[in-house]
Amino acid sequence: MRVSAILISVLLLCGVAAPVAAQSGSSRGRSSRPNIQLFSSTGFQGTRVRLTTSTSSLGFYNFNNRARSARVVGRWTVCDRPNFRGRCRTISSSRSSLASMGMSGTISSVRLLGR
User: Fold this and answer.
1) Residue 66's CATH number
2) Distance between CA atoms of residues 56 and 95, nearest Å
3) pLDDT higher than threshold 50 for residue 22
């Protein structure tokens, strides 16, 4: 039992399994808690990843450089390199296309700034 708990903890820390931090799927799941939903297509379409905490690499969710639109609750920084590096932009409202802010298909890390 203890080995299982340790393994789950390690997986969560590595970002391999994060049931609360990220959820993939097609439901819209609106919430007043800060979250960002990244979509693989414009217009909030395609594959979706919902994040409720910062992540240093979207590669953990197989979503590196895939976001084309975003639904946003709260304030977030999105960066085009892992570990919140490279070109970063603050986003605080939903965008049906990330192209207007120059971030379409380039987001690699996401940091929660707050409400």
Assistant:
1) 2.60.20.10
2) 21
3) no
Percent helix, percent strand, percent coil in the chain, to nearest 5: 25, 40, 40
Number of structural domains the chain divides into: 1
Residue partners of 96: CB distance under 8 A and separation at least 6: 42, 43, 44, 69
Could you give the count of Cα atoms lying within 13 Å of 54 in the half-sphere of its Cβ?
A: 13
Domain ranges, residue 34: 19-114
| 87, two tokens | 């070109």
Here the tokens at position 42 are 């414009």
Specify the range with the lowest mean pLDDT, choosing from 30-34, 56-60, 66-70, 106-110.
Answer: 30-34
pTM metric for this prediction: 0.73
